[in-house]
Amino acid sequence: MAMEDDLAAQLSEQIESWSCSSTDCFHISLLRPNGELAAGPFNPKFTYPIFGDEETIFGYRDLDISLTLREDDLYPHLSVKYGEKFKGVAEVQPTDIQDLMKDFLPEKAFQEAVQQSQSFTPPGEKLAEHNHSGKTCETWTCSLADPKAREILENMQIFAPLMIEGGSLLDLTQEYTAERWRLFLYYRVQDGTYSLVGYCTAYILLYLPNSFASGAFSLDDIINNPPADGVEAHYPHRSRLSQFIILPPYQGCGHGRNLYRDVFSNLTAPKAVKEMTVEDPNEAFDDLRDFCDLEYLRNNSPAFADLKINTSLSASNDDSPFPIDQIVDGDTRRTIRVQTKLEERQFDRLVEMQTLSRIPVANREKSRITRKEKCSNPNDRAFYLWRLFVKERLYRFNFDQLSQIEDQERIDRLESAVDSVIEGYEILLEKAESRGKPKGKGNKRVIVEDGSDEEVAKKVKR
């Protein structure tokens, strides 16, 4: 038995000596048209979609996987170098790195080194230009039915699984599918050259004909007689943001805010768009989205900026719950949401942030609201009603889970969830309030950078 243990230990040690982290040995760089380094090298955040859950590569020592992409059109080249390679024995063979990566890169990435590009202009339409720390940045957009836009995405869409947890490649094999997608490219421009900072993809979803009482159209109309300029110009639909990436060398500098604002403005501008949604956002993106959406509403909707908790509500004699539409005026909320085209849950959370911001920090303590709606201090009463307002949304959002547990456990979970919501909102509100405030004696303003990637554990979805 001891001999078997020794052999197992030796085998394990040998396997470990020939194994390495697929994330640590993977390096990505952007190259200028003349071949010089423009950005990087940097490591991906995730490699399990390519190399498995363990994110381990077997059979090499001193392994270096280098993915270089031209900074403008993202023309890729993959290079695999190593000091030693394990001589396979029977079924024990080194990881076939190129074979695993062929589904994530175009064929040309395995054949040619990145060559110097000719003059380059992004495909499509320039949406906006930004002066960012003395440098010019531009946002461009184009349909993925455009061959040039599609080629750029195919060159770089390995970034989705490498940078987004659970990210995947887009399936654009059908032409009608490509026409539904838009690509947003965010470049830093210097001396006539374009260097990619980040990108976003989005697509449209048509509402079913019965979704709107006044929607006098049928699916047959769309299938048999599609408009030459696209169905999105004529039929009610929602725009859905899919992938959103700022490359690691440029993160934490405010580029994400610029790109998100440009994307939001573009996607919500058409009259036929009824709503903009986001596909499976992670918490890091939620922070960015919350910050930008709150800023947008405060700056563009006086009615939203005026929202507050109605503290004049009186307790009913029959212990019936307070009508939610009376805590924060329901008609006003619905009108603002339709005008701004924000998704319902996201808008509800923004209303919660705004109304919480109207309650002084000193009054946001549960110890002050033991008398509930009968609190003599109007700010304490507002905080009690605000918590009821939030609990109602959380209960609806988590109904399937909460409806299956005992009353007291449900109450405890909701109380804990509200506490977690407050903690998250206060962090964001502190950033929002500090942004734009004068700093010190001069006129310089505090600049709040993009949210961190830190995730907050929670038992009830917020």
From TrEMBL:
Its EC number is 2.3.1.48. GO terms for molecular function: histone acetyltransferase activity; histone binding. The active site is at E279 (proton donor/acceptor). It is found in: Cytoplasm; Nucleus. Residues 433-462 are annotated as: Disordered. Residues 53-55 are annotated as: Interaction with histone H4 N-terminus. Gene3D superfamilies: 1.10.10.390, 3.40.630.30, Histone acetyl transferase 1 (HAT1), N-terminal domain. Keywords: Acyltransferase, Cytoplasm, Nucleus, Transferase. PANTHER family: HISTONE ACETYLTRANSFERASE TYPE B CATALYTIC SUBUNIT. This is Histone acetyltransferase type B catalytic subunit. It comes from Piedraia hortae CBS 480.64. The lineage of its organism: Eukaryota, Fungi, Dikarya, Ascomycota, Pezizomycotina.
